[in-house]
Fold:
Amino acid sequence: MNFFKFASLTLIRNLSKNIVIFIFFTLFIFIASSFIFTSSSLQNSLDAELKGQPDIIIQHKKASRNHPIDNSIVDEINEIPGVEKAYERVFGYYFFDTANRYINVIGIDFLDEDQEKQIKHLYENFDLKVFMQKDNMLISSAVKKLFEQYYYDKFFNFIVEDEEPKKVYISGVFDKRVNLFLNDAVIMDIAIAKDILGYEENEASEIGIVVPNKLEIDNIVQKLLVITPTSKIITKNNMYKYSHELYDYKGGIFLSLFITSFLGFLVIFYSQASSISGPGKKQIGILRAIGWSINDIIKWKMSEAMIVSFVSFLSGILLSYFYIFLFKNNIFVSIFLGSDNVYKDISLEPFFDINSFAILFFITIVPYLASTLHPAWKSSIADPTEAVK
Amino acid sequence: MTNVIEIENLNLVFSAHTPREFHALKNISMQVKEREFCILKGVSGSGKSTLLSVMGALLKPTSGKLEVFSNPVSKMPDFHASTFRREHLGFIFQNFNLFDEFTVLENVQTALVPTNTPVAQMKTRALELLSLVNLETKKNTFARNLSGGEKQRCAIARALINNPKLILADEPTANLDRKNSENVIEILTKLNQNGTTVLVATHDEIFEQMVPNLKVIHIKEGMLL
Ligand SMILES: Nc1ncnc2c1ncn2[C@@H]1O[C@H](COP(=O)(O)OP(=O)(O)OP(=O)(O)O)[C@@H](O)[C@H]1O
Ligand SMILES: [Mg+2]
Structure:
């Protein structure tokens, strides 16, 4: 028997006394690690999503809101050396008011051979010839569910301002595991999408530009500023930066909340551990009498603390892994994405961010062990004659 | 014969210089020789447990000389005192002081935890001692489920795990009936005959009746008579 074996025995055999601290610790780790899993998985899918985006995007802003952009500059941009392709992108939220939900309408050019990868992958298994014969669309499984609730199982009537409702047939469902950001999407021909979103023929949501040589991006941005000085030009780098800043910001808020409440927990734990109970004193007295030194007592107490904290740490992470990745619609997703425009049908891609967990380890286990040390020492020097009383 | 314990002019004052000051041991001088079986006799509150604790380096005397196996134990720092206790002394208590939630076998081994004794060796040694105190059949029983007599035999096995040359027992029979008391004394006597020095604090007449060549030291109000 060594200290670890001894400590695990004293813990297990006094389970009822130790279970509270174990549950609390596990709960803390569960919450923190659910947060980490969610944010890093979202961040990871967002990065993957951004990867498929064009290298430069041009938007037209009015009062800082997106406004349709004139697509006539596309030809001019295509002339800039280094630009492989400039093209209009059409998308936008359509408000399905009966259901009080937004649907992400994406218009694409199905005949474009170098379609953006994450979009192309949605329709690569459909027969485009049949698809193009009438006003058709492909919808996500979440949207399908929503439509079916309102008995739209063959088509959907989009209400368009000052016009007849636009009837678009549902020709298929991309029910493959889709990117989180396409979860609430329907895709259709670009012309129909423009109709639904109320765009003129020469208008688009934004203009995407593909630049194969990343070193030329700055140069091209300069030239774009000449062509369209009032537009907002966003590079992919900016997008990465922005998304990371947003997540870091939310992460920062969470972290400070977490640390505060964890410290509270430690204070309670500390005061409880410092007031050594009668039976605890007796145990230590006995051990001292049979030849344990103060150091030995501390080693025992610290081993107990290590076991409790390691086991809680692992259990908390494991539980949250199951909760976050095996169950859909966890509450942590809505913390990040908001619950209004996201369908309650989100499952996250498993992603393990080792750095975050290393940080979690250091902000929980280390302070916990530190706060165990003083009570352990204090109890070890308590009256050594307890055993003969 | 050499002295196992040597005490001269030993005093112990609890809570010195406070209103609660209490002079528990007064000018104690005594020796316990190797292989002696000694009892410390006195009424409740006379200072028996206190004197035993001092000998076991659990309490520091206020003044005077104390040597155990020629070691100035009261002057040792904690680490050495603990090692000394573990290697030379076996403690036995009135209320057994077992870990109730541990099995007999686990209880016996606890004293070896701080040593780096290999697991197998630890177990062999523990089983040897359990057979000595006639408790092998109960090795996997939780201590809380033992009878009083069994508890004390388990405690004796625990005290013997490091082969101590001195056993300090504080009223080991006070919570036992006649039959079990005899049993404990037989074990102590056997150990004594094999060379272990035994010092027992007690007011139980049974020791005088059973132990041959018993040395009796009387203590009253912190003083030896
Ligand atoms: N830590 C302490 N502080 C103050 N007084 C103490 C302390 N420990 C013991 N005493 C006092 O010292 C005296 C001797 O106590 P001790 O426990 O040695 O008696 P004892 O002879 O073992 O009695 P018993 O037969 O009841 O066990 C008692 O009056 C006790 O109240
Ligand atoms: Mg006593």
User: Anything to note?
Assistant: The interface with chain B takes residues 1-3, 6, 9-10, 13-14, 282-283, 285-296, 299-300, 384-385, 387-389 of chain A (CB under 8 Å). The longest helix of chain A spans residues 236-274. Chain A is about 55% helix and 15% strand. The mean pLDDT of chain A is 85.
